[in-house]
What does this fold into?
Amino acid sequence: MTQRKSPTAILHEGPRALSSDQVREIEESDLAGVLHVDIDDVIEYVHKDLKSLPGFTTLYRRYLKQRWDVYDLDFTQDKADWDEKMTEDERQSFIAVASGFHHGERQVEIELPVFMIGASEEEKLHIAAQIEDEARHTVFFDRFYREVVGLQGDDIMDILDASFPWVSETFVGPFGLLAYQADEVRRNPYDERARVRYGTNYFLWIEGVLALSVMKVTLSYARWRGFLPAYYTGFTATCRDESRHVQGGMRYLQQAVRKDPSMIGEIHNTLRTILSLSGVNSRQIYYEPLGWTEDEVRMLFFQQLRRKLNDVGIDLTPDLEELLRRVQPVLAGG
It folds into this structure.
């Protein structure tokens, strides 16, 4: 168990540099070693290469070295922690976050292939690897829900149906928009504007902002409490996979804007839609049992968004800056 800092204190710390030893540990650890990797280091690692953005074949080679077997995880201790150590409020908050990932991983697994059609040959290698990652992550959550939470079903779809009541609009809005955008790309896979809209929602917001932020919530909780070692291991390995996905996605968006500067308008309009959807919260996640407030999580969202855009050189329009200022919480020093 590590010493706990308050989320507000963490948010005010800002970016930090990773040592070469920390980078090596993140990149080269096998599944057993991932248990000892700090999730904050992995999230920082996502940003490490955003200014230079590795090529798609480099990302594919990292994938080959970092693949992991979801069936090597042993959830026995997680089951004991879930049943005997966590409160009901903690379990309900945790499952609300996990359910969004459970459904998101599966949705991307079946929708990302349409984005591959119009991609370059090098990008196709990277996307093919990402689809395999998403399938593995889907199985990871299927095992977690069966073996730890105790949901029952004959197949993967049964467990997805059983976990859906916990999915909040934090996830439903962006993934509902993504389904519409995937249909656009499916109808015309070479429409670069449709691809940029899809890429903005998926690579920038869903993976780069939403996923990394709420990963930090559940994984920080597990690390602080010393609970759920298999979940921590598997989901931290998932976050390492996401680093490749985010870096590849941001490379795509950066190249699209450099090739046609008018594409920045598609990015901005998509962000306006996403931010307007973020105000719909009829089914909320209560983060407090996991040590975070809703305002702290929202602040984390906006920090992640600004860092991604700043690192790849994409500016926001004045109206988007004003929108962010209006909806971004102001936190007291911590």
The mean pLDDT is 86. The first helix runs from residue 7 to 13.
